[in-house]
Amino acid sequence: MHSIRDYLTEEHRRGDSLYAKLEELVRSERWKEAEEAFKAFEEDVLTHFKKEEDILFPEFERTTGITMGPTQVMRVEHAQARELLERMRSALEGRDKKNFLAVADTLMILLQQHNMKEEQILYPMCDQYLDSLELVNRMDSL
Amino acid sequence: MSQGLSLLQAPPFIIVFGFFLTACLFGVFASFFELFLSIKGSFNLPPLVHLYTLGFALFTMFGALFQMLPVVAGAVIKNPKPKAFLSYILLLLGSTLMFVGFLKRDYLILGAIFAYLGIVYTSLLMLWHLFKVKAYIPTPMGFRYALGFLLLGASIGLYQVLSYFDLVPFWERAIYVHLTLLLFGWIGLLVASVSFQVVEMFFVAEPYNKSFSMNFPLMVLFGLVLSYFGGFFSVPLVILFLSYSYMTIRRLIKRKRGMEPSILFWYMSQTFLIISSLLYPFIHTYFLPFLFSFLVFFSSIIMGMMYRIIPFLVWFHLSNMLAKRVPLMSEVIPYESIRLNFYMHLLWVACIVLSFLLNQKAGFIISSVVHVASSLFFLYNVYTGGRLYFELKS
Which residues form the Hemerythrin-like domain (chain A) (predicted)? Predict the structure, then answer.
C-alpha cells in the first residue's frame, strides 16, 4: 500500500529522470527528440501539480483548516515552475541551447528544493491527517 | 501543526549571504596569511588552521544551516535575524580574537570564550529546533549528531586553551580528540548528511543505501569513540568515510544529469576526502598532508555548494517578491566564472603538492599567490552575485 509520501515522491523521481533525458537531448542538439522529451516532461510535471492542487491541497486545507500555510507556498512555487517551463518551451522552439539550459538549471533547483519541502514536511503531515489510501487512489485516477 | 507554517518562513537572504560573504573574507585573509608564512618560511599552524576552520568553514556551515533547517528539516527558527546576528557577532569576535591570540597570546582566552559562546548558542538554537521535528530522511538526523560533535569538539578546544594558561590540567590527547571530533564529526558528517539528500536530487543520481545513510551518524559516533585509542582503532572511521566517498563518486559518475561546473568541485572534494581518510591513521607522521587534504576536501565542497546556493537564492527571493527583473542562476554567477575558479583552485592544490614533494620554498610562495588569486576571485563572484539581489530588489 502506498502512503501519500511514497506515491508522490516516486512521481518526483520519475520527473527527474524525464528531465535528465530532456537535458541530454538538448545538450546534443537532437531538437526533434528533445521536443518530444519536453512534452513528456512538461505533461508529467503539470499532471503532478494538478494532483496536488486539485485533490491533495484542498483536502489538506479542509481537514486541517490551514489555508495560508504550506499549501499556499507550494502553489506559489508551482506558478514559478510553470513560468520557467514556458521559458524553456520558447528556448526550445528557438533552438537556443544556452538559454534553454540556463532556464532548465534554475527550474531543476527550484523543483528540487520544492520537492524536499514536500517530502520532508508536507507529505508526512498529509499522511498523518488524511486518508492516504483514498487520496492516492483519487490522484492515481486523474 | 505549526511545523507546516514554517514553509512561509525561509530565512531572509541577508542572513545566508552575510555568513557566506564573511566566510569568503576569512578565506581571502587566510590565503594572504598563507602567503606571509610562505615568504617567512615557517608555518604557524594554529592561526592558519583556525582561519580556515572557524572563519571559512564554520561561517559557511552555519549560514547554510540557517537556510537548510526549514527547507530540509522543516525546523523553523522564528524571527531569525536577531538570533543570526548574535551568532554572527560572537563568532566574528571569537574568530578574529583567536587569530590575534594565537600570534600574540594576549587575546587567546577571550577569543576562545567568544567563539565558544557563539558555537554553543548557535548549536543549541539549531538543535532545539531540530529536536522539535521528526526526521523522515537522513539529513536532519546527521545535522543533530554533527552539531553535537561540534559542541563537544569546541568544548575540548576551550579546555585546551585554558590549559595553555595553566587554568586547568594539561590533557595530552586533547588536540587529537579536538581535531578528530571537529573534522570528521562536525565537517565530515555535515557534508555527508547534505550529500545524502542533494546528490540524488540535484544530479539525478541513484539514492544512497537507506540503511547506510540513516545509520551513518551513529556509525560515525562509534568510529569517533574507537578512534580515541588511535592507530588501528581509527580504521573503522576511515572505512566509513572511504565508503561514503566511494558511494558518492560512483553516484556522480553514473548521474543522469549533464555536466555543470559545481560537479568538478564535488569530484575534487571527494578525492581529497579519500586521501585525508587514508592518511588519518598515520596522522602523527603525516600531520601536514592530512590537514592539507582535509582542507581541500571541505574548501572544494564549500565552493561547489556556495556557487549553487547563492545564485538560486538570488533568483528565488527576487522571484518571490515579483521583482521587475529576475536573473536566472547562470546570470547571477556565470558558469564560465565558476569553471575558471575551479581551475584556479585546482592549480593551487597542484602547486602545493608539487612544492611539498620538491620541498621548494619558492614553490610554496607561488602556490600561495595562486591561492590568493583564487580566494579573491571566489569572494568577487559571491559578492557580485549577492549584490545583484540588493540592486534588483530596490
Answer: 4-126
